[in-house]
Amino acid sequence: MKLHVLTACSRTENLGIVQESIEKASIPECEVKFHVLFDDKLEHVGGQFLKNQMLDEISDGYVYVLDDDTVMHPDLISRAWLTWWWNPDFPALAFNQDRGSYIVEAAQWSMIPNGVDIGQVILKREIIGDKRIPLTYEGDSIFLSELLKDRDDVIYLNEVLSYYNALRPEVEAS
Fold first, then answer.
1. Which of 55, 117, 120, 130 is the most exposed place for a label (fewest CB within 10 A)?
2. What distances in angstroms separate CA 31 from CA 5, 90, 171, one per listed residue?
3. Which residues 6+ apart lie within 8 Å of 21 measured at CB?
4. What are the beta bridge partners of residue 65?
5. Greater pLDDT, 87 or 109
6. Total Cβ atoms within 10 A of residue 104
7. CA 36, CA 58: separation in Å to the nearest integer?
8. Span 2-173: which CATH code?
9. In DSSP terms, which residues pair with 94 in a beta bridge?
10. Buried b (16+ CB within 10 A) or exposed e, 82-95
11. What does 125-152 look like in DSSP terms, one character per residue?
């Protein structure tokens, strides 16, 4: 299984921690390629333009968008690999996300615009096709809900496999 991890980075101080979470989650059975584009001047709302640029460069495998303030659970890649091993053509894997303060966003109930974070889904590149993330702050969830709204073959794991906004200064200080 090949997994492309895409990060649009405007908070360079977080990049080492984001990369460390990928390294801790990596397993030998899965080829992981980390793609990063920088938005130092904060020109792109939510990094959508940069995420789309990275999507344009990828034609195979699976795609996981990991924002620059979100980190992977150490079991994320192994759980994705096991899913692939049992079902090598799975189109999408959705999972729960820890939102802090004891809030867990369950993926299967939140596949609506503004209700799901892009860091809750791994997508097979071929189902994305030429669709791209709308250039709005809500673009991630709009993109996902459009891609997955009529699919009955999405695999849902009732497990927390990412930590949303885990690297905001106010979260780290608490």
1. 130
2. 11, 17, 31
3. 66, 71, 72, 74
4. 6
5. 87
6. 14
7. 13
8. 3.90.550.10
9. 121, 156
10. ebbeeeeebbbbbb
11. HHHHTT----SSTTHHHHHHHHHHTT-S
Give the amino acid at 134. P
Question: Which of the pair, 39 or 128, is modelled with greater confidence?
Answer: 128
Bigger pLDDT: 102 vs 81: 81
Retrieve residue 141's tokens. 């969830």
Question: Of the spans 16-30, 129-143, 154-168, which averages the highest pLDDT?
Answer: 16-30
The Cα-based distances of 47 to 6, 21, 50, 115 in angstroms read 11, 20, 5, 18
Residue whose pair of structure tokens reads 């999507």 in the numeric block: 55
- Which single residue is written with the structure tokens 């649009």? 8
Token couple for 82 = 């096991």
